[in-house]
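Now for a specimen:

…
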Amino acid sequence: MKNIKRLSILVCLTLLFSIYGNVWLNKSHAAEVAQSTTYKITQEQQSMNLPQGYTLQVDNQSPFASYRFVHSGSTALEKKLQMATVEQVVSLEVAGQNYILISEREAGSGAYLHLHLYLLGDQEVKEVFTSDKLYPQADVSVSNDQLKVTYPIFADDQPQAAPLSIKEDDYLLQNGTVTLQKTVAGTEKKEQDDTYKIKATNTNPSWKEISDYLTTAAIAHNIPPEIVKAIAWQESAWQQFWTSDPDGTGPKQVGDPVIGFDGRGLGIMQITLAQSYLDSHPGLENDLKYDWKKNIDYGVQILDDKWGYGGVTNLTPTINDNDKKNLVNWYFAIMAYNGFSKINDPHFTTYTPYQDLIYAHMKKYGLIDVPEVQTADLDVYYNTGSSRMYFNNKMHYTIDQVVNSKYAFSKGQTLQINTASVGLKSDHEANANVVKVLNIGDRVTVLDAPTNPSDRFSHFTYYPVSLSDGTIGYVESAYLTDSLTNNSVDNTSGQTSDPVSTTPSSPTVQQPSFSDLKKGSYGYDQVAALNKKNIIFGFSDDSFRPEASLTRLQAALMFVRALHLDTPNVKSTGFNDIKVGSEHYKEMAAIKKAGIFDGDGNGNFNPNQILTRGQMAKVLCVAFDLQHKSSYTTPFSDVKNNIFQSYIETLYGNHITSGLSKTTYGVDEKIKRVDFSIFLYKVI
C-alpha cells in the first residue's frame, strides 16, 4: 500500500514538473535568449540611452549623416554616412550580451537597406556583422535571437512600387555570430495609416494630364522630358493612386496612394525621404501622397539635384560637356535618383542597373536610343564593408555621340526625318491614320507647339508639320532632327547604330540591284538596309517584286540570316515535306530547332504557302522573343478573339505595326514582301 502511495506521489510530481517545469524553462530560456527595445529615428538629431552606460547619438543631417557610441563622455565608435540615414536602432540582449542593430537606409528611390550589428563591451564597441546582401526597400524585425529581413523582388519592366514577389531572409544570432538560416516567401504588411480612409475620393488624372505635367515640370528644370517620363514609368507606371492591387495579394486598395513595399516610396515619383525629415516638415508627407503635381515637382527637383552632383568629389562624374540637353550626359544623375548601391553597378550582373532600365524605357516607349557608359570603361570602387559605389578614380567620361531631347523644336523650324518609313499621321495618337509615308531626309516645317498623345505607353510627343507639297499631319518627335547629314541620322529605336561611332549610322541606302524598287519608293530604305546585311535578296531577273505575297520559305530564310542561326548537317529536318539533301534543308532544320515555324497537322512545312499578316505577327514575336503584356491592346476590330490577337497586340504595343487603317489590321490578308521587309527591319 505504501509503495502504491509513493508511486502515485511520484507520478503527480512528474506531471507537475512536465507542465510547470517546461513553462519555467521556456520563460527562463526566453529571458536568456533575447530582450529588445526598438527606437524609430523620428528626429534629425536623436539620442538613446543604451545598456552598460552607453549613449547612441544619431545625426541624420543630409547629406552626411552619422552616428556615434559615447561612453563616459568619450566616443567609443563613430561612423559617418554618405547618401544614407539611420532609420531604426534595436537594442537587444542575447545570452547576457548586449547588441545594437542599426538599420542604415540609402538615399534614393531604391531605399536600399544595410544592417550593422555591434557588440557592447565594457570600454569598446565592436562591429560583429554587416549585411552583405543588397536589400531594396527592405524591412527588418527582431524576434528573440532571430533577425528577419523582408524585401521585394522586382521584374525589369515592372514599376518599383509593385513587386513581383516578396522574400524573407531569416538570420540567427548566436554566440556573437550572425548566420543566414533560410530564405522563404514573405508577406506584405497589411497595416494602413488613417489617411487611407479618404481613399474613395482619390483618382488618377488622365494619362494625357500626367504626360503634359511631366513634360512641363521637366522643361522648367531644363531636364529632357524623355528622362522624367521614363523614371515615372519605372517608379509607378505613372500612377499616384492604385487602380488595382497589382500583385493580387497585398493590402493595396483602389484609391490608395501608391506607396512602396517598405512604406517609404511615395506617389508617382516614389519620393523616398527619411521619416525624421518628413516629421520635421509638417504637411510634406500628406502632399507627396495625395497631390500628384507636388509629387512630380518634388521628384523632378530631386533629379535636378542629382544632376548637380556631377564633378563633385565622392559623388558622380560628368560626361562630355555636361550639357543638360544631351540625354547621353544623364547616366550618373539617373543612377543617383535610385541610389549608389552595388545593385546599380553594371559589373554586378545579378540585377539590371536602374539607369539601364531607364534608358531601355526611353528606347521602348520614347523611341529614342541612347548610348550609355560602357561597363568596361566604368571605374568603380568600394570602401571596406560598404556596398556604396565611388567614382573618384575617374570623374569624367567621353561618349562621342549627341542625342538631344526632342522636345525643344520650335514653330517655323525646318526639320528632317531621321529614319525610314515614318507615318505622317492625321492626329497626335499612336493609332491615327497614316496620311503619307515619309523617308530619311524628307523635310518638314513645324507648325506649332507639340502635343502629347493620350496614352501612357507613348513617352514621345507629336509635332504638327507641313510638307513642301502642302500636306499637313503629325510626326513623332523621335523621328525628327535638325542635324541630319548624308551619312548619319539621330539614334532612334527603329534602327541599329554603332554606340562608339562619332555619329550613329543610318540604314544603308545604296542602290540595290532591283529593277522594280527605286530610291524614294515605299519600303526602299528598309529593303536596301536588309540587302546590305545579306538578309534579303531579289529574284534572278533583278526584280524584288515588292507587291508579291511572301511565302513561308522566303520568310524562313530571312529569319535564318537575320538571327544568324546555325545550319549544320542533320539527319532530319523535323518536317515531313523537307527532305535531307533538298534545297535549303539545313535552313529549315534550323528554323524547326529554333521553334519559329510550326508544321501543319501532318508535320509538313508547306514552303510555298503564302504567309498571312496574322501568321507574320506570330513568327516575328516568336523569332525575336517579343513578350506579350496584359497592358497591350489594339484599336483593330478584326483582331478581337483571333488566335493571333496576342501577337498583334505585342507588335502594336511595341510600335511595330499601325494596321492597314485606324481600325483594321488585316489578320487574314496576305503579307507583301515589302511590308514584311519593313516589319523585319523595325524589329532588328
